[in-house]
């Protein structure tokens, strides 16, 4: 069982940066692949970025590539999402997720993830 708690969201202006954090419980955190997803009002959940177990592989949605960076600190049981050059279209609730079943890949499918955090709101004003 893994519990995930996101933090770092907030209200920023277009062009600003934010770093989201996702703290995970459990001593087996390094064995999990981690993902970030987001959901804007009235829209479906959207893949943002993923990181395989032990950080060997990363994957990004096309619209985030070059602006967002996913990373992990296994000593702190934490995964991060650094978001730069934010724009109003990035406004959403951001969720982190964990999977052990697909730990060696960077799945873009939310159904592959077993554990989810409660989400953190990111609002970007123009």
What does it look like?
- It contains no helices and 11 strands.
- The chain is mainly beta and 126 residues long.
- The strands form 2 sheets. Strands 2, 4, 5, 6, 9, 10 and 11 form a 7-stranded mixed β-sheet that branches. Strands 1-3-8-7 form a 4-stranded antiparallel β-sheet, with no helix packed on it.
- It starts with a strand and ends with a strand.
Keywords summarizing the entry:
globular, four-stranded antiparallel beta sheet, mainly beta, single chain, seven-stranded mixed beta sheet, 126 residues
Query: What global shape is seen?
Result: globular
Tell me the number of helical segments per DSSP (H or I, 4 or more residues long).
0
The gyration radius over C-alpha positions equals 13 Å
- Measured as a percent range, the helix fraction is under 10%
Major β-sheet profile: 7 strands, mixed
Q: Strand tally, please? A: 11
Report the structural category: mainly beta
> What is the helix/strand order?
EEEEEEEEEEE
Please state the average pLDDT score: 94
Q: Please report which band the strand proportion falls in: under 5%, 5-15%, 15-25%, 25-35%, 35-45% or over 45%.
A: over 45%
Task: Report the uncertain regions.
Answer: none
Distance between the termini: 40 Å
List the helices and strands and how they pair.
Layout: E1 4-7, E2 10-13, E3 18-24, E4 33-39, E5 46-51, E6 58-60, E7 68-73, E8 78-83, E9 92-99, E10 115-116, E11 120-125
Parallel strand pairs: 2-11
Antiparallel strand pairs: 1-3, 3-8, 4-5, 4-9, 5-6, 7-8, 9-10, 9-11
